[in-house]
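Appendix B. Chain record.
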Amino acid sequence: MISAATRVAAVIGDPVRHSLSPLLHNAAYRALGLDWVYVAFEVPAGRAAAALDAAAALGLVGLSVTMPHKADAARRCDVLTPEADRLASVNTVTVLPGGRLEGDSTDGEGFLRSLREAGHDVAGGRVLVLGAGGAARAVAAACERAGAAVTITARRAGAARAAAAAIGVDHAPWDARPGLAAAAAFVVNATPVGMSVPGTPLPPDSLGAGQVYVELIYHPAETAMMAAAAAGGAQVVGGLGMLVHQAALQVERWTGLAAPLGPMREAAARALAAR
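Structure tokens predicted for this chain:
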């Protein structure tokens, strides 16, 4: 039961009402026996700094940050972790003692944890990242840090070039992706193709045995490209694991306790099954 002693955390974004973050976090707090609650605040574009100031003033535990606020939130934070500083983007804000704000990015490490959970390690492998947005950058940076050779490609050549330069990895033209995919150990789809955009981000017969295809999309649970890659003999990893692990890292950062992955994953799976 919520009381005057209940601690509050939240997610900010626009839109945000579809977010699974409240389900994930509240499942974790219940499993940990904490008198905490996690809510969603729809914050219009351009108001991230005001939202962070409010979080500090109200004594919130912290904020999860989603589009379109990740870059603005990074600029407002008083201190950034090395990963957030490298990306100039945050998805996690922690309210420190005294009201100072620390920004972090858990997307990349959440991605690596989800791969390890599925039995995969990118170290020493070639990774092709399709897309150049914030999630793509976080994944590319994490893979590079983990010892992979990373190439970014996107429909917008300038975006791919800028993302690669910021992280220190290679970029390539979008039209070169079938050949690059054939030579890669891991192919990561960080585009909306397969979710809000119909179709597949690669020709369906691009991948085969010995390769791993990873979707950042978590709804639907199986995209057309995942089905095609599996039919060709590749191993596939869906986006639900990254979603859970990036939230788990936030829970661990804020509570100091190991995140209860089972209850978090079950809460997300139930919600997705009902959509």
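Further analysis of this model is presented in Appendix C.
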